[in-house]
Design a protein that fits this description.
It contains 13 helices and 27 strands. It is an alpha/beta fold. The strands form 6 sheets. Strands 1, 3, 5, 6, 8, 9, 10, 13, 14, 15, 16 and 17 form a 12-stranded mixed sheet that branches. It has a 4-stranded antiparallel sheet with strand order 18-19-24-23, with no helix packed on it. A 4-stranded antiparallel sheet has the order 22-21-25-27. Helix 6 crosses helix 13 and helix 11 packs parallel to helix 12. The chain is globular, with a radius of gyration of 24 Å. The N and C termini lie far apart (80 Å).
């Protein structure tokens, strides 16, 4: 009789990567494979793992059997034809007397939910979360893989066990699970509401893979090899302690977490490339639908630097997967921090540089003092609108008013928008949030009114205006939105 291997003993370990060439004698699946998982539809299905070098491996899935062999380093992979959404299915992997079985496997759309603390922010702590959890009404077609960090990156000193695991790239841990009140409570609130809206509107299984680290900077999610290839970014890798693109707060927090280490090469999730290698690289053999992203707070000190790193991140991830999957990100909210208006505008402008991308505006949901606004439901659903429009091709409005050009006529500036839609304010009050910049760089307040699908701004007598800005206060109460209830982004535009 074939012996059935205990899969949990394999899956409880760190993410396994194809880069690991250590020999293994026991048949195993990569840790991303376990019961309840979702495999990406309409893409070749790849099932992979390890066995003794030269061992024959037989994989059975969807009434088809593929035979393969463990090659270099014991790595084996079976690739099945693309499948439509459906399930639940079973997977069986056999090698000699060893057999692995997976059950309750769905085929649907897999979305990676990544970034820093606002993506890691749990459903139970969001404004609508407690009521959501109390209802216990969870879509059965959603499955989650919450790869949580084994230690907090807040102001704590890590013990020797944690330090050793981090050095072995074992920072993330977690398995696929169905949605329950218990599993949903600690799940990303943004990801939950994104997945719920998409799953219910598309009636398709959704897999959410949460890989996010509170406080983590953008550079920690980019392959160090790619950073080192960019002449203006390699300083982040080679001279981390002094690189201007690195936020000093990140270096300080690393020092707090690593106070007990004696290893001068000690790893940390804030260091360049760490989260990519430990959290993202093990996923690149797994086809996905796309990525939702909420990060930037730890790079807001250097707006241009963040733009370069972020654009590099998206490009490198897509090259690793081999296709231009959609990348939907959250524009930072408003808060009393001086560079955030410029940062938000930079995020908006990145849409012109990054193909197949979308942005969810959140400035209207910000908190003047708290970097973690609790209204995550709206943010998750705005990301879902990006996916429903861009990936699922629904004919819906996914964006707020998007400025096209600004023209001065006598004592008025008229702002036109890309779509002819009825504009209004989110509170029913007078339009606020606009300001004018003259040729000397002075900020000039201006009153504005909505004229159907345009905004008219009054130019004070004697003023020569160069630029119009919207929502350019750190904490902004700017209130322009469209008939779909979606807010306008922070923007800056020169007058034609």
């Amino acid at each position: 009789m074939r012996r059935i291997l205990l899969i949990c003993s394999i899956l409880c370990g760190p993410f396994w990567t194809l880069a690991d060439h250590h020999s293994i004698q026991v048949l195993s699946l990569a840790p991303v494979f376990n019961d309840h998982m979702v495999l990406q539809r309409n893409k070749p299905v790849k099932i992979f793992g390890k066995a003794a070098v030269g061992t024959k491996v037989e994989v059975h899935f969807l009434n088809k059997t593929i035979q393969t062999e463990a090659g270099d380093g014991g790595v084996w992979q079976a690739e099945f034809p693309a499948a439509s959404a459906g399930g639940p299915y079973n997977v069986q992997v056999t090698s000699g007397q060893d057999t692995l079985r997976l059950k309750d496997i769905l085929v649907g759309d897999v979305w990676i939910c990544s970034g820093q603390s606002n993506m890691d922010f749990p459903l139970k702590a969001s404004k609508t979360g407690p009521e959501e959890l109390k209802s216990k009404s969870f879509p059965t077609q959603i499955r989650i893989l919450h790869k949580a960090g084994i230690a907090s990156t807040y102001n704590t000193a890590w013990d020797s066990t944690t330090l050793a695991k981090v050095n072995h790239m074992e920072y993330f841990a977690g398995n696929w699970e169905p949605l329950t009140a218990e599993s949903a409570a600690t799940l990303t609130a943004v990801g939950y509401y994104f997945g719920k809206k998409v799953a219910l509107e598309q009636n398709v299984p959704i897999g959410l893979i949460q890989v996010a680290v509170g406080g983590s900077p953008t550079e920690s999610w980019v392959d160090t090899k790619r950073l080192d290839q960019e002449s203006d970014l390699r300083d982040i890798v080679r001279n981390y302690e002094s690189a201007e693109y690195v936020m000093p707060w990140c270096r300080e927090r690393i020092g707090q977490n690593l106070v007990n280490t004696k290893d001068n090469k000690q790893m940390h999730p804030f260091k360049p490339g760490y989260n990519f290698e430990a959290g993202i690289l093990p996923l690149v053999q797994l086809p996905i639908a796309g990525v939702i992203w909420y990060q930037g707070e730890s790079n807001a000190h250097h707006v241009a630097g963040h733009a370069r790193i972020f654009e590099t991140l998206v490009d490198d991830w897509r090259k690793k997967w081999g296709y231009t999957f959609p990348f939907y990100y959250v524009q930072l909210s408003s808060i009393d921090r001086p560079l955030w208006p410029e940062f938000r505008d930079s995020q908006r402008q990145l849409l012109n540089k990054i193909p197949n991308a979308g942005m969810a505006v959140s400035l209207d949901l910000g908190d003047s003092l708290d970097v973690h606004p609790t209204q995550k439901k709206q943010i998750g659903e705005r990301l879902a609108l990006q996916a429903l429009s861009g990936f699922y091709h629904e004919k819906i409005t996914a964006n707020g008013p998007t400025p096209k050009h600004a023209v001065q006529r006598n004592k008025k500036i008229m702002i036109s928008f890309l779509k002819k839609e009825n504009l209004k304010t989110n509170d029913g009050k007078d339009l606020i949030g606009f300001e004018l910049i003259d040729y000397n760089g002075n900020r000039v307040k201006s009153t504005g009114i909505i004229k159907k699908n345009k905004v008219a701004l009054a130019v004070p007598a004697g003023q020569k205006i160069k630029t119009v800005r919207y929502a350019y206060e750190s904490f902004s109460r700017a209130n322009l939105m469209n008939e779909a209830g979606l807010p306008a982004s922070t923007f800056s535009m020169d007058i034609k």
